[in-house]
Amino acid sequence: MPVLLVVGFIAFALSDFVGDPVLLYLGQDQTQEQREALIRQLGRDRPIFVRYADYVWGVLHGDFGISYAAREPVGQLLMQYLPATLELAGIASALAVAVGVPMGVYTAIHRNTLLSRVFMIGSLIGVSLPTFMLGMLLILVFSVWLGWLPSFGRETVLSPVLPAVTLAMFQMTMIMRLVRAEMLEILRAEYIRFARARGLSDRAIHFSHALKNTLVPVMTIIALQFGGIVAFSLVTETVFEWPGLGRLLVKSVASADGPVMSAYLLLTALLFVTINLVVDLLYFAIDPRLRLPRGGA
Amino acid sequence: MRDWLDSDAVHGFRTSPIAVLSCLLLWLLIGGAVLAPWIAPQNPFDLGRVSLMDSSQPPMSPAADGDRTYFLGTDQQGRDMLSAILYGLRVSLLVGGLAVAFAVVVGVTIGLVSGYVGGFVDLVLMRIADVQLTFPAVLTALLVDGSIRAALPRSVHDSLQLHVVVFSIGISLWPSLARTVRGSTMVERGKDYVLAARVIGVPSWRVALTHVLPNVVGPVMVIATLGLGMAILAEATLSFLGVGLPASRPSLGTLIKYGGDYLYSGSWWMAAFPGLALMLLVLAINLLGDWLRDALTPGLR
User: Fold this and answer.
1) Which positions 122-181 of A are in contact with B (Cβ < 8 Å)?
2) Distance separating alpha carbons of residues A285 and A288, to the nearest angstrom
3) B145 touches chain A (CB under 8 A)
4) Which of A72, A159, B285, B299 has its CA 20 to 30 A from that of B98?
5) Cα separations (Å) of B262 from A19, A140, A250, B51, B166?
6) Which candidate, A194, A180, A164, places its Cα nearest to that of A124?
7) Contact status of A272 with chain B (Cβ, < 8 Å)
C-alpha cells in the first residue's frame, strides 16, 4: 500500500507538471487572456492538494487524463496497447518457465555432460547480452538471412516468436541457474539420501522430492523478475515494432507526454503489488510449512 | 609497496585467470577509448576526412583512394567503423563513469545519514529506496529522463543532454548503494571505537566520515563496479530507444541503433561490431566486479 501511495503522488506530479496542456489546446498563437481563461477552465489554478485529490478520484474511476500527443483519453490508449503487451509477456514467461526449469533440472542431475556445459555457457552469454542486441541478432539470422520469421509487427501467427524468445532469454537463464543451484543443494539433503536408501526410483526422487522443493525460491524469482519483463519489454517492443505498452511509453517519453507516462507508472506499480500479493498467497499453497496453525494454538 | 604486493587480494588476483584476463581486456578498451583521438585511423566527426565514396563498405575492404583498409567496414556515410567505435567507447565510458560517480556520492551520503541518524529519517529514506527498487533501473532512468526532457525548453535541453542522461542513470542506481552503506554503518555505529570517539566529543559528521566511511569502502567498490556495467548498459539502452545522447556524439548504443536501421539491407557490421564492443566491455566489468565481490567482501557471497 505505501508503495502505491508514493507512486500515486509521483504519477500525479508527472501528469500535472510534465508537458503543457494549454499549449495543446490553443497552439502556438495564444494570447495571455486565452491562456488564463483556459487555465481556469481546466482547474489548473486550484491549490495543488485539490488537484491531487482530483487526480486520485479520476484514476479510481479509470480516468487518467488526456494524452497530449494522441489527443485521446489515456485510458483508451492503454486499453488499445495493453493486449499486445500481455500477449508478449505471457508467451515469454511461459517459454522461460517451460524451457528454463527442465534445463535447470537436467544440468543439476547430469552435471558434467557436454550438454550441461553448453547450457551453462549459453546462459552466461544470455545474461550478458543486452536485450536489444539479442533481438537484432535474431532478426539478422532468422529474418534477414534465413527469411523464416517476420521481424516486426503483430499481424501473423508467427509474429510473436522472435520478440517472445528475446524477452524470455534473460528470464530463462535466471530460472535455469536458480533451479540448478537449488536442486544441487537439495540433492545433498538428508531426506534425499533417505529416499534413495528406501529404494525409490531416481525419477521419483528427482521430480517429486527435489524439484517440488525448489519451487518456492523459483517462484519468488519469477515474480521479482516480472519487473525485468516489463523493463525489457520496452526494448523488445521497440526492436520488433510490437504495438504494446512499452512502445507507447517510449513514444510518450520522446514527446514529453506526462499523462501517459504517469498512467504507465501507476499500472506497472499496481501490477508489481498484485503479483507480490499473489506470490505470498501461493507460498501457502505450495509449502505447507509456512501455514500458521489455525484456531487456539 | 612490498606489503601490498604480498597481500591477500593481490595474490588472489594473480592466481585468478578470469580476473587477470578481464582486467586486461578492460584496460585495453579503456586505453582505446582514452587514446582514440591519437590511435583511431580517422576522426569520424571530421567531415573532410570522411568520404561518401566509401559508404557501406563491408569489413576488410580497401578505401576508394586505396591508401588504407577498413578493417571493420564503414557506415552509410563512409565513416570508418573502428574509429566510430573507439570514439563511441569514450562516450559510453564517460557517461557510465559519471553516472556511477554521481550514484556513489548520493548513495553513500544517504546511506551514512540513514544508518547513523536512524529513526524517522532512516524510515523515510529507506522507504523511498524500497519503492524505487521495485522498479527496474532502466525504467526509472527512462521516466526521469522523460520528465526532465519535458520540463526543460528544447534549446536548453539539447545543450544539457549529457547531464540529463548522467543524472537519470545515476538516480536509478543509488538505492542499492545506500542500503549497503546503511547496513554497514549501523553495524559500525555500535562498535566500541565509534562509541569512544563520541565520548571524547568528536562531532557526529566527523565520526561518520573518518571512522565509519573507511569501513564501508569495500562493498561500495563492489557495487560501484557492477553498477558501472549497469550504467553503461542503461545508457546504451536509452540511446537505443532514442531518448539518450544526441546523434552528434554517438555512444555505442547510438551506433547500434543506427546500424540496426541497415540490418535489413544486409549491412550487419554496422550494428554487430559496436554491439560486440559493448558486450566485451560490460562482460569485462561484470567479471571483474564478481571477482572483487568474492575478494573484498567474503560475507556478501
Assistant:
1) 128-133, 136, 139-140, 143-144, 151
2) 7
3) yes
4) B299
5) 34, 10, 21, 19, 29
6) A180
7) yes
Spatial CB neighbours of B67, under 8 Å, sequence gap ≥ 6: none
> Between chain A and chain B, how many beta carbons pairs sit less than 8 Å apart?
110
- Distance separating alpha carbons of residues B140 and B157, to the nearest angstrom: 19
Q: Distance (Å) from the C-alpha of residue B6 to the closest C-alpha of chain A?
A: 33
- The pLDDT value recorded for residue A182 is 82
Residue of A nearest to B266 (CA): A144
- Domain count for chain A, please give it: 2
Cβ <8 Å between A129 and B279: yes
Instruction: Summarize pLDDT for B151-162 with one digit per residue, the tens.
Output: 776 666 667 778
Q: Which residues contact A289 (CB under 8 A, 6 or more apart)?
A: none
Q: Are residues A31 and A164 in the same domain?
A: no
Q: Is the per-residue pLDDT at A29 higher than 70?
A: no
What are the strands, taking DSSP E only, across chain B? 61-62, 69-70
The reply to whether residue B282 touches residue A261, judged by beta carbons under 8 angstroms, is no
Q: How many residues does chain A have?
A: 297
CA angle, corner B291, sides to B290 and B294, nearest 5?
A: 90
Average pLDDT, stretch A259-282?
80
**For A232, which residue in chain B has the nearest alpha carbon?**
B138
Q: Both A126 and A240 in a single domain?
A: yes
Question: Tell me, what's the pLDDT at A293?
Answer: 58
The answer to whether residues A101 and A220 belong to one domain is yes
Q: Which of A131, A234, A63, A123 is nearest to B142 (CA)?
A: A234
Spell out which residues of chain A touch residue B146, defining contact as CB-CB under 8 Å.
Answer: 18, 252-254, 256, 261
A203 and A133 co-located in one domain: yes
Task: Locate the chain B residue with the closest alpha carbon to A129.
Answer: B279
Task: Give the gap in angstroms from C-alpha A80 to the nearest C-alpha of chain B.
Answer: 21
Q: Is the pLDDT of residue B9 over 70?
A: no
Q: Are residues A30 and A139 in the same domain?
A: no
Q: What is the CA radius of gyration of chain A?
A: 25
pLDDT higher at A63 or A175: A175
In a domain, A75, yes or no: no
Looking at CA atoms only, how far is residue B194 from chain A in angstroms?
Answer: 35
Gap between the Cα atoms of B10 and B281, Å rounded: 23
The residue ranking higher by pLDDT, A63 or A17, is: A63
Domain boundaries, chain B: 2-37+77-300
Domain span at residue A17 reads: 2-60
Cβ contact B278–A133 (<8 Å): yes
pTM of the model: 0.79
Inter-residue contact B269 to B81 (CB < 8 Å):
yes
The residue of A10, A136, A233, A271 whose CB has the most chain B CBs within 10 angstroms, and thus the best one to mutate to test that interface, is: A136
Going by pLDDT thresholds of 50, 70 and 90, the confidence category of residue B83 is confident
Q: Do A136 and B131 touch (CB under 8 A)?
A: no
In a domain, A263, yes or no: no
Minimal Cβ distance to B275: which of A14, A133, A235 = A133
Residues A35 and A137 placed together within one structural domain of the fold? no
Fold held by B2-37+77-300: MetI-like fold (1.10.3720)
Higher pLDDT among residues A14 and B98, named by residue: B98
